[in-house]
Amino acid sequence: MEENVQPKTWLVESILVTLFCCLPFGIVGIVNAAKVNSLYASGNIEAAQQASATAAKWTKIGFIVGIVVIIVYAIGYGVMLKSALPDM
User: Keywords on this record (predicted)?
Assistant: First the structure.
């Protein structure tokens, strides 16, 4: 007999990605994460698993995009700062 376990919601992770990394992708993650509990409670296990997978995908994409943007920004800031300082 197979026992169904509620899938991870990814809600906390999606909120953190929205706040600190990438707003648009984090919002998509939050929307899908919010669906997981209600779908599972209504007995729609397959849809709950799909919503969890989609929330995980967009949360991870948002995190990666946010980190890349932060790195590019830091490099650009360093280059601008170096060009603004007089040569020694």
Answer: Membrane, Transmembrane, Transmembrane helix
Residues 47, 62: Cα–Cα separation, whole Å: 22
3-state class (DSSP) for residue 44 = coil
Per-residue pLDDT of the chain (88 residues; tens, 9 = 90+): 467 899 999 999 999 999 998 899 999 999 999 999 999 999 999 999 999 999 999 999 999 999 999 999 999 999 999 888 887 5
**CA 88 → CA 4, 13, 82, 85, distances in Å?**
67, 46, 11, 9
Query: Radius of gyration (Cα) for the chain, nearest Å?
Result: 19
pTM of the model: 0.85
